[in-house]
Amino acid sequence: MALRQVTDATFEKDVLEAPGLILVHFWAPWAKLSRDMNRLLELVARRYGPRLGIVGLEIDGNPQMRERFRVMSIPTYLFFRSGQVVETRVGRMEMFRLYDIIDALL
Q: Does the model's pTM come out above 0.90?
Protein backbone atom coordinates (compact mmCIF):
# COMPACT_ATOMS: atom_id res chain seq x y z
CA MET A 1 0.00 0.00 0.00
CA ALA A 2 1.54 3.31 -1.06
CA LEU A 3 0.84 6.52 0.80
CA ARG A 4 -1.75 8.70 -0.85
CA GLN A 5 -0.09 11.79 -2.29
CA VAL A 6 -1.43 15.33 -2.15
CA THR A 7 -0.33 18.33 -4.21
CA ASP A 8 -0.39 22.09 -3.96
CA ALA A 9 -3.71 21.94 -5.84
CA THR A 10 -5.35 19.34 -3.56
CA PHE A 11 -3.86 20.31 -0.19
CA GLU A 12 -6.73 22.56 0.90
CA LYS A 13 -9.39 19.89 0.32
CA ASP A 14 -7.37 16.80 1.28
CA VAL A 15 -5.68 18.20 4.40
CA LEU A 16 -7.00 21.52 5.63
CA GLU A 17 -10.68 20.66 5.16
CA ALA A 18 -10.35 16.99 6.16
CA PRO A 19 -11.91 15.79 9.41
CA GLY A 20 -9.83 14.30 12.18
CA LEU A 21 -6.07 14.10 12.57
CA ILE A 22 -4.01 14.25 9.36
CA LEU A 23 -0.27 13.58 9.14
CA VAL A 24 1.48 15.13 6.15
CA HIS A 25 4.90 13.75 5.27
CA PHE A 26 6.90 16.31 3.28
CA TRP A 27 9.43 14.27 1.32
CA ALA A 28 11.62 14.08 -1.80
CA PRO A 29 12.34 11.06 -4.00
CA TRP A 30 16.09 11.81 -4.04
CA ALA A 31 16.34 11.56 -0.24
CA LYS A 32 16.86 8.01 1.02
CA LEU A 33 15.55 8.86 4.49
CA SER A 34 12.33 10.18 2.93
CA ARG A 35 11.83 6.96 0.99
CA ASP A 36 12.54 4.89 4.11
CA MET A 37 10.03 6.92 6.10
CA ASN A 38 7.38 6.43 3.41
CA ARG A 39 7.62 2.68 4.04
CA LEU A 40 7.39 3.16 7.81
CA LEU A 41 4.37 5.43 7.42
CA GLU A 42 2.62 2.72 5.41
CA LEU A 43 2.89 0.49 8.50
CA VAL A 44 1.64 3.30 10.73
CA ALA A 45 -1.35 3.78 8.41
CA ARG A 46 -2.27 0.11 8.80
CA ARG A 47 -2.09 0.36 12.59
CA TYR A 48 -4.33 3.41 12.93
CA GLY A 49 -6.67 2.85 9.99
CA PRO A 50 -9.42 5.45 9.69
CA ARG A 51 -8.49 7.18 12.97
CA LEU A 52 -5.53 8.87 11.27
CA GLY A 53 -5.13 10.22 7.76
CA ILE A 54 -1.59 10.00 6.39
CA VAL A 55 -0.57 11.62 3.14
CA GLY A 56 2.67 12.52 1.40
CA LEU A 57 3.64 15.75 -0.32
CA GLU A 58 6.63 15.61 -2.64
CA ILE A 59 8.36 18.96 -2.11
CA ASP A 60 10.10 19.47 -5.44
CA GLY A 61 6.87 19.39 -7.40
CA ASN A 62 4.83 21.30 -4.81
CA PRO A 63 6.74 24.43 -3.78
CA GLN A 64 3.69 26.40 -2.62
CA MET A 65 2.89 24.18 0.38
CA ARG A 66 6.59 23.73 1.17
CA GLU A 67 6.95 27.52 1.37
CA ARG A 68 3.61 28.13 3.10
CA PHE A 69 4.53 25.82 5.97
CA ARG A 70 8.22 26.78 5.95
CA VAL A 71 9.52 23.28 5.34
CA MET A 72 13.30 23.67 5.40
CA SER A 73 14.43 20.05 5.89
CA ILE A 74 13.14 16.69 4.87
CA PRO A 75 11.58 14.64 5.99
CA THR A 76 9.22 16.97 7.84
CA TYR A 77 5.99 15.79 9.44
CA LEU A 78 3.13 18.18 10.11
CA PHE A 79 0.08 17.00 12.02
CA PHE A 80 -3.14 18.88 11.23
CA ARG A 81 -6.48 19.04 12.98
CA SER A 82 -9.28 21.31 11.75
CA GLY A 83 -6.92 22.95 9.28
CA GLN A 84 -4.34 23.90 11.92
CA VAL A 85 -0.87 22.49 12.56
CA VAL A 86 -0.94 20.83 15.99
CA GLU A 87 2.50 19.20 15.93
CA THR A 88 5.69 19.42 13.86
CA ARG A 89 8.57 16.96 13.68
CA VAL A 90 11.66 16.95 11.47
CA GLY A 91 14.07 14.15 10.61
CA ARG A 92 14.25 10.45 11.29
CA MET A 93 11.49 9.11 13.51
CA GLU A 94 11.47 5.72 15.14
CA MET A 95 8.17 3.89 14.81
CA PHE A 96 7.45 3.72 18.53
CA ARG A 97 8.21 7.42 19.00
CA LEU A 98 5.80 8.16 16.17
CA TYR A 99 3.18 5.98 17.87
CA ASP A 100 3.64 7.96 21.10
CA ILE A 101 3.07 11.26 19.28
CA ILE A 102 0.02 10.00 17.42
CA ASP A 103 -1.52 8.44 20.54
CA ALA A 104 -1.13 11.73 22.40
CA LEU A 105 -2.80 13.64 19.57
CA LEU A 106 -5.73 11.27 18.97
A: yes
